[in-house]
From TrEMBL:
Keyword set includes Transcription: yes
Originating species: Advenella kashmirensis W13003
Record's keyword terms, sorted: DNA-binding, Transcription, Transcription regulation
Domain IclR-ED: 69-253
Annotated HTH iclR-type domain residues: 6-68
MF GO annotations: DNA binding; DNA-binding transcription factor activity
One annotated GO biological process: negative regulation of DNA-templated transcription
Membrane-spanning segments: none
Highest taxon listed in the record's lineage: Bacteria
Pfam annotation, one family: HTH_IclR
Protein name: IclR family transcriptional regulator
Length: 253
C-alpha cells in the first residue's frame, strides 16, 4: 500500500472512531477538532464514507452519525451475545402475535442480510436462514433501505442492480421502482407483494438510530398469501414499530 493510501485509510478509521464513539451527531468542524485532521481532508473522507454507507448525513442539520454499514459491522461484532438473545426474544413476541415468521435484517452492500429470525410454527413456510442475503429492489426490507437513502446514493445503487423479474409481480422498470420507493418513504414502511418469491408477502418497518431517524436495520415479517394478506399484516404496524424502538435501544446500548 502506498503511503498516501495508508494515510487516507487511517484518517477514515479515526473519523469513524470519532463518530461511533459519541452518542450525539457531529458536524464537520467538530470532527476536525476531535480528530485533529484538517477540515478539508475530513470533508473528503466523510464524502467517501457517506457514499459507501458507513456514515449517514442528517440532511436538515448537516450533522453526521454512523451509517447502516457501520451499524451492520457493530451487530456482526456483537454476534452471539446479548444483542442476539434480546433480539430473538423480541422477534418471538411478534411471531406469537402474528403467527408469521419475523426477521431482523441489515443493509449489506447492495443486498439485504438476515441477521436473526424466528420462524412460524405453521406448516406452510418460506425458509430463509440467518445469514441469507436477498435483493434490495424486490423485498420489503430492501425497498425500505433504498427509500431512506439520499437520491444520489439511491440512484447510484439502482444503476448497479440488475432488475431481474423474479416473479410476474417484480418491479423491473427503474422509473416505476423509483415511484414505489418514494411511496415507501412517505408511508414509513415497506411491503413485498409476491415480488421476491411467488406466494410470499412481507412487511418491513425501520429500526433507527438516535432521534435523527436514520434507518440502520429493518424488522421484517414474512407470510404466505395462502394464510394472510398485506392488509392483515398492516394491522400489526403499531406492534412492529414499538418492537423497532426496542431494537434501536439495544443497538445504542
Amino acid at each position: 500500500m502506498e503511503k498516501g493510501d495508508e494515510q487516507r485509510v487511517l484518517r477514515s478509521l479515526r473519523i469513524m472512531e470519532a463518530i461511533v464513539g459519541t452518542s450525539m451527531p457531529m458536524s464537520l468542524a467538530q470532527l476536525a477538532a476531535k480528530t485533529n485532521i484538517p477540515k478539508a481532508s475530513v470533508a473528503r473522507n466523510v464524502e467517501a464514507l457517506i457514499n459507501s454507507g458507513y456514515v449517514a448525513l442528517i440532511p436538515d442539520r448537516r450533522e453526521l452519525i454512523p451509517g447502516p454499514r457501520a451499524v451492520s459491522m457493530s451487530i456482526g461484532v456483537l454476534g452471539n451475545g446479548h444483542f442476539r438473545r434480546e433480539c430473538r426474544a423480541i422477534l418471538r413476541k411478534l411471531v406469537q402475535m402474528t403467527g408469521e415468521t419475523c426477521n431482523f435484517t441489515v443493509l449489506d452492500g447492495d443486498q439485504v442480510k438476515y441477521i436473526e429470525r424466528v420462524q412460524t410454527k405453521m406448516p406452510l413456510q418460506v425458509h430463509l436462514e440467518a445469514g441469507t442475503r436477498a435483493p434490495l429492489y424486490c423485498t420489503a426490507g430492501g425497498k425500505l433501505f433504498l427509500s431512506n437513502m439520499t437520491q444520489p446514493v439511491r440512484e447510484s445503487i439502482l444503476m448497479t442492480l440488475q432488475l431481474d423479474a423474479l416473479t410476474e409481480r417484480t418491479i423491473t422498470d427503474p422509473i416505476a421502482l423509483n415511484r414505489e420507493l418514494d411511496r415507501v418513504q412517505k408511508l414509513g414502511y415497506g411491503v413485498d407483494n409476491q415480488e421476491f418469491i411467488f406466494g410470499m408477502i412481507g412487511m418491513a418497518v425501520p429500526v433507527k438510530t438516535s432521534k435523527a431517524g436514520v434507518t440502520v436495520a429493518a424488522l421484517v415479517c414474512h407470510a404466505t398469501v395462502a394464510r394472510t394478506s398485506i392488509v392483515q399484516l398492516e394491522k400489526h404496524l403499531p406492534a412492529f414499530r414499538s418492537a423497532a424502538l426496542e431494537l434501536s435501544a439495544l443497538i445504542l446500548q
